[in-house]
Specification:
- There is one protein chain.
- By secondary structure, this protein is mainly alpha-helical.
- The chain is built from seven helices and eight strands.
- The radius of gyration is 22 Å and the shape is globular.
Amino acid sequence: MKRTHFALACLLLIALFSSAQSTSESQSPNQAPAPQAAQQPSSPSQTPPAGPPAQQTGSDQPKDQPKDPLKNQAPPSGTSNDRLFFALPNFLTLENAGHVPPLTTGQKFGVVARGSFDPIQVVWYGALSGVSQAENSEPGYGQGAQGYGKRYGAYAADGTIENFFVGAIVPSLLSQDPRYFQSGQGSFFHRAGYSVSRIFVTRSDSGHSQFNYSEIVGAALASAISTYSYHPGRTFRGPAENGTREYWPSDRTLKNTASVWGSQVGYDTITLVVKEFWPDIRRKLKKQHNPRPGL
């Protein structure tokens, strides 16, 4: 199952890479050399189009906190209302966040539940289950409506359990911040490297960098629960030609658990790269649909 999930994510990343490169090329003629950190960022995607900087709350804020009227502003809870590709929940990603207060335990569980039970997940898990059934992955589930229903339930449970362990349970126990803080600056490869590194490095609730136990340990725990609870065990396949009984091998093995864990971490890595560049793509799409008057 996770292999299919991972393959779909790779396709999304390839599309995103192409879009990000075209965005970077369209913006590069207007970028200044900008070796000075004290000046306003020169990227057109992060520079206000001649609006009054009226939302400043302190005299030293404008240089460190560029205001972008096209970005998705985070609500007071410290989370986002954004959606990847205008569909998939992206509530734990913040743009140009700077210093923000940590999430409480209740907020961590609340935002994870909000994303995990979002109506779009019904469609997302349904598509993944259909691909999985077409490939006959985990054949112990069988085929037909019954097999599809089992695969759908497993996908929904896998996603929900992993979301809660990585985004709420382990972060609450270890006081780590489950949010992704977008870099938004530098070359494509610099930003891609930053986003990949967030799999292993995260913020603590106190604002310090820590090893990302929430991701690595949380995904491992979720994979173990998933594999050894409701994924198919040794399943009767049918009689062989010689009259003996044949069985599908059990998926409840340590090897399969490690495979699911590795695939999940890989999928989450790709998701972080998508989260890093999605705001740029979103702003570009909005500008194309809402061009400035006179242009």
